[in-house]
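User: As part of a screening pipeline, I want to sanity-check one entry by hand. Below is the sequence and the SMILES for nicotinamide-adenine-dinucleotide. Please return the complex as structure tokens so I can compare it with the automated output.
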Amino acid sequence: MARFAGRTALVTGAAHGIGRAIATRLHAEGASVLLADLDVDAATEVADRLGDGRAAARRCDVTAAADVAAMVAACVDAFGALDVLVANVGVASGEGFDGLDDEAWDRQVGPTLRGTIRCVQASMPRLLTSRHGGAVVMTGSVNGLSAFGNVGYSVAKAALPNLAQNLTVEYSAARVGEGQRPVRFNVVAPGTVRTRVWDTQHPDALVPLYPMGRLGEPDDIAAAVAFLASDDAAWVSGVTLPVEGGILAGPALAFQERNPG
Ligand SMILES: NC(=O)c1ccc[n+]([C@@H]2O[C@H](COP(=O)([O-])OP(=O)(O)OC[C@H]3O[C@@H](n4cnc5c(N)ncnc54)[C@H](O)[C@@H]3O)[C@@H](O)[C@H]2O)c1
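Assistant: Here is the complex for your manual check:
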């Protein structure tokens, strides 16, 4: 399937983990992909491996407005368009509510929420004039949908579903300018996915919480992002798609085990 043939995608946080899997998947389905990341060496390695003249890497810190503007310009310079934005960067630093001082707040909400908004704002002029109809997918989290702790990170992720809804209206058919097309905005909300962020923790202890009997892999999330970014989701906007092995249904499962009647 080449759902993205002739289209250009920009993926942030694309050097590792979920972002790398998303960039790889979109490329495999025909997209030209700009992989943006703080870790430009790793992003370059991925782009070189993808090759085919349809992948490039760029250093970008999503907390820096100038970097983000230059990233969008670099995408257009490299591939002539921007049709799909995947705003994937998120940072969790694990403080409890008591420890959530200004510094901890900025460290998490800066890249996770403000960075996402900044990337969308910088991309809008190009997405509105995409000849395919622009699409934005933001990486949320189950942390933004229920109380899984890590409160600073979680409230930043919780804002994304509302952002997708507001932007769906803001950039709807009735409101866009002449020569522009409505843009779709959706969120993918992963459960626990095996990436390096779990390296120093014990994610296998979480497996029993997952009705599907395993943790997620980056490719599980990439498949959902590819769907939301593609024309298969042409009539889908403002939604949040949990991709989480059933963990949000898990508490009900535990409840029924203790209360079989
Ligand atoms: N792994 C999980 O269990 C899980 C679960 C739910 C949601 N998520 C979300 O998925 C996304 C990707 O997480 P991951 O697990 O792949 O993490 P990861 O650490 O493997 O990848 C994150 C990437 O973002 C880059 N990055 C960090 N700060 C940046 C910045 N300011 N500017 C540009 N790039 C920056 C990193 O260099 C890295 O390449 C995040 O938004 C995360 O919150 C992850």
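Points to compare against the pipeline: The first helix runs from residue 17 to 28. The chain has one domain: 8-258.
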